[in-house]
Amino acid sequence: MTTTAFDLPGYRIVASLGVVRGVVVRSRSLIGTFGAGIQTIFGGNISLFTTLAERTRQQAFDTMLVQALMAKADAVIGIRYDATEIMSGATEVLCYGTAVRVVSLPER
């Protein structure tokens, strides 16, 4: 289970296992940059960059989940993303949250 919130409805957090994160550093290819440049001529969504950004975020998220699994977590709460341009054409994407163990609350 994952959430951007700091609790999970229907569950009680019984242990906090610390921060887990996924880091991906991506660069644009010369061909992709050229194709995106052509898309800017026509305006609108630059789908080549959108696809690259979404794949990068997903990879960072998946890497964070692997860390949570290695920590034997049941869930990750407080998930956030951050991105930093490391150099021209290269961006770091970080996905992080708190790995926790939870127990199900009794039905009311």
UniProtKB/TrEMBL annotation:
<dbReference type="InterPro" id="IPR035439">
    <property type="entry name" value="UPF0145_dom_sf"/>
</dbReference>
<comment type="similarity">
    <text>Belongs to the UPF0145 family.</text>
</comment>
<dbReference type="Pfam" id="PF01906">
    <property type="entry name" value="YbjQ_1"/>
</dbReference>
<dbReference type="InterPro" id="IPR002765">
    <property type="entry name" value="UPF0145_YbjQ-like"/>
</dbReference>
<protein>
    <submittedName>
        <fullName>Uncharacterized protein</fullName>
    </submittedName>
</protein>
